């Protein structure tokens, strides 16, 4: 477990974008993917908004994905396993990097064919509590032709990251503008933020 944590931190220090190829085990990724598909089949995912509760609005020309917020109150065994992994990572991060993270929020994200999310920052202008962004991907057998890459805009060289299953990406929420390129296949992830109130 700590190997994947160190992968995230070391690559983040090197390039401002942490990547662990196997943060989620194949078994956990498959169970979380099935949860997402079941929720979608029950029409429980909602159109994703832009902004926070004070300034929330919806614009399909900016983003077109659907989401479902994870909550420990749901008491889903696999989501709880995911939360336990995040809790362990935060403990490791705080002890090794003194980040002062005190909480988090995560949601499932579903992009159907043709969906996208234009360039944006993850930290709200009126609320700086989101410190780090984390995305864990749930897409097995992803091909380059499927599109849907995470494009991170760096000063010297933009970074394109394929959303392959088990991979987790980690970066500072107020620092890197990023976007989700148009996907040609169903694209699934758990996306969230490590927070400090």
Walk me through the structure.
The protein is 26% helix and 27% strand. The protein has three helices and eleven strands. The chain has helices at 2-15, 26-41, 77-97; strands at residues 18-20, 46-47, 66-69, 103-111, 117-120, 130-137, 150-152, 159-161, 168-172, 178-180, 187-195. The strands form two sheets. The chain has a seven-stranded antiparallel sheet. The protein has a four-stranded antiparallel sheet with strand order 5-10-7-8, with no helix packed on it. The chain is globular and about 40 Å long.
Give a quick rundown of the structure:
The protein has helices spanning 2-15, 26-41, 77-97; strands at residues 18-20, 46-47, 66-69, 103-111, 117-120, 130-137, 150-152, 159-161, 168-172, 178-180, 187-195. The protein is an alpha+beta fold and 197 residues long.
List keywords for this structure.
single chain; alpha+beta; 7-stranded antiparallel sheet; 26% helix
Strand order of the largest sheet: 1-9-6-11-4-3-2
Q: What does the radius of gyration come to?
A: 16 Å
- Oligomer designation: single chain
Structural shape? globular
Counting DSSP H or I runs of 4 or more residues, the number of helices is 3
In helices, the fraction of residues equals 25-40%
């Amino acid at each position: 477990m700590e190997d994947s944590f160190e992968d995230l931190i070391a690559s983040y220090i090197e390039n401002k974008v942490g990547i662990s190829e196997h943060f989620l085990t194949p078994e956990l990724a498959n169970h979380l993917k099935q949860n997402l598909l079941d929720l979608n089949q029950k029409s429980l995912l909602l159109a994703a908004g832009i902004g926070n509760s004070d300034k929330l609005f919806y614009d399909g020309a900016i983003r077109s994905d659907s989401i479902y917020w994870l909550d420990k109150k749901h008491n889903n065994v696999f989501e709880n396993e995911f939360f336990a992994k995040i809790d362990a990572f935060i403990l490791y991060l705080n002890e090794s990097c003194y980040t002062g993270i005190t909480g988090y929020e995560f949601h499932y994200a579903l992009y159907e064919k043709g969906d996208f999310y234009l360039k944006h920052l993850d930290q709200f202008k009126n609320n700086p509590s989101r410190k780090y962004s984390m995305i864990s991907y749930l897409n097995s057998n992803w091909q380059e032709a499927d599109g849907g890459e995470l494009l991170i805009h760096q000063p010297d060289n933009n970074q394109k990251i394929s959303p392959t299953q088990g991979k987790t990406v980690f970066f500072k929420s107020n620092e890197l503008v990023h976007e989700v390129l148009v996907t040609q296949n169903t694209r699934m992830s758990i996306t969230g933020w490590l927070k400090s109130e």
